[in-house]
Amino acid sequence: MRVALLCLLVLLAAPTGVLATDGPPLADAGLDQRGTLDRPVYLDGTGTTDPDGTLDDYRWRVEGPSGTAVPLDCETCVRTRFVPRTLGRYTVALTVTDDAGHTATDRLYVRVGTSGAVGSVGDVAVALDGPRTATVGDTVRYRARVNVTERPAALEWRIDGRVVRTRAAAAADAAVLEYTVRERGRYRVNVTATDAAGDRATASLNTTATGTASDGVPQGPQPTVTGPRLLTGGVDSATYRLDSTDGSYVDWFLDDRRVGEGRAVAVSLTPGTHALHAVRQTSQGPVRLTFAGNETGVVVDPGPTLDVAVLHGGDALSVDARAVDPVGDLDVLALSVDGERVDTASARDDGAVRLNGTYAFAAGTHEVVVSASDARGQSARVARNVTIGDGAPTVECTETTPITWLPPVLVCEVV
């Protein structure tokens, strides 16, 4: 009996430990933001943590004001961005998964307006963009952008309280008002959007007119676009300006798509060749503004990308390297050993090149460099000390296609 009682006391006195379990991660999509129409909104999930494990996957999703999905630069990156194309509230969700398969989701909201005037009532939002200064004789343009939950019914334009246009929202010219400035002074432009439910929102801005009608006629040299025409080294955005302006309304176009207005514009560019120009509105009609010499070209060249899948020694030097260039101006892929070039491969028409082979060298340790360069002198390189000869490990590689719709991959092992 004493033995049984002692065992019972020991069991009761033993610490009541609880088996630890892996909990879910703590998702952090960041704080609510305000965005600008047609300008990137940046998202940062680096605040996400997993107290008892590691994070395996990030998944971003953005829904626009109408509930449709909005494309992102990268849906599975820790940091990413998107460009809002309509006014209103965007819902951003970040879902993370840890190494145990647990998930967590955090949301934030981005309210998007424009750099101009914005009016919002209930579910109706309207933004108004246009010049703040004008010259008498100029024909200036004002643009309205509307976002509503219900189908928009009409847009009404007023200048100094006087109705100058009313259009059904579906009309092709409803969102643009062209107005010829007749006299000096300050005037006020209003645009009112009405939806099918009768809700209304109004945006307003003021424009100051100076000069005389003759001042509106373009005479002499026109403003010139300034800014970088060659972007290299991974740079993919730039700001362009006019070297002078008289305050006339200016539109900016990239590859014939309107990307901004005013004296300067900031643009994001993809690799390749683009055409950039501005259009100045005058009483004599639109005037096209370009870089000096009537040039419009802008080239984005991030340089070559080099992937060295195999670079090993053994009985001989084994190399398998690939290089690509997004703009197709890859020049050469080269292999150098101990400072001497031993092999090269030229790029194909698609801008890609592969160097694959086995090379015999004297026993010992050699400095091996694989480099890719493009026509603009940009390069990428991988350098490694490789041992050749008895006792050096040998690597055998085979090419396989584990998923039929993906490119083949190399699987290597030391033997």
From TrEMBL:
Xref: Gene3D superfamilies: Immunoglobulins
Pfam family, one: K319L-like_PKD
Superkingdom assignment: Archaea
Domain PKD/Chitinase: 26-115, 124-212
Alphabetical list of SUPFAM superfamilies matching this protein: PKD domain
Start and end residues of each stretch annotated as Disordered: 208-227
Entry protein name: PKD/Chitinase domain-containing protein
